[in-house]
Write a structure and sequence with these properties.
By secondary structure, the chain is an alpha+beta fold. It has one domain. The chain is about 35% helix and about 15% strand. The protein is built from three helices and five strands; from the N terminus they run βαβββαβα. It has a three-stranded mixed β-sheet with strand order 1-5-2. The protein has a two-stranded antiparallel sheet with strand order 3-4. A hairpin with a 4-residue loop joins strand 3 and strand 4. The radius of gyration is 13 Å and the shape is globular.
């Protein structure tokens, strides 16, 4: 799941092609995290405890706030820090609820 925050940001914007999102996401993952790209394994689930945790939500919100306070960026949800794609299933929410959650917490 990709969410772009902010108005402009570095050269990463040219790497994301809306006509081929899968290739774009894989390209961003290949480049790795940086000033304008952040990976988050989950939106709310603590993978160590197996329970939803406010600290996980706060980490995601801090990344979004950092993007909004700078030149913007791309948040890739369901991607581990090592670049492994695990998808939104870790949050135990259907994708439709993940989308609703993102829209209401931006």
């Amino acid at each position: 799941m990709v969410r772009r925050y902010g108005s402009t940001f570095d050269d990463y914007s040219v790497l994301y092609d809306h006509t081929d999102p899968e290739a774009s996401i894989r390209r961003l993952i290949g480049i790795g995290e940086g000033r304008a790209v952040e990976f988050k394994s989950t939106m709310r689930m603590n993978l160590h405890t197996g329970k939803a945790g406010k600290e996980i939500e706060m980490a995601r919100l801090k990344a979004v706030a950092a993007f909004l306070n700078t030149d913007g960026g791309i948040l890739l949800l369901g991607v581990t820090n090592s670049g492994e794609i695990n998808g939104p299933s870790s949050d135990e929410l259907p994708v439709s609820k993940v989308i609703t959650y993102i829209k209401h917490h931006k």
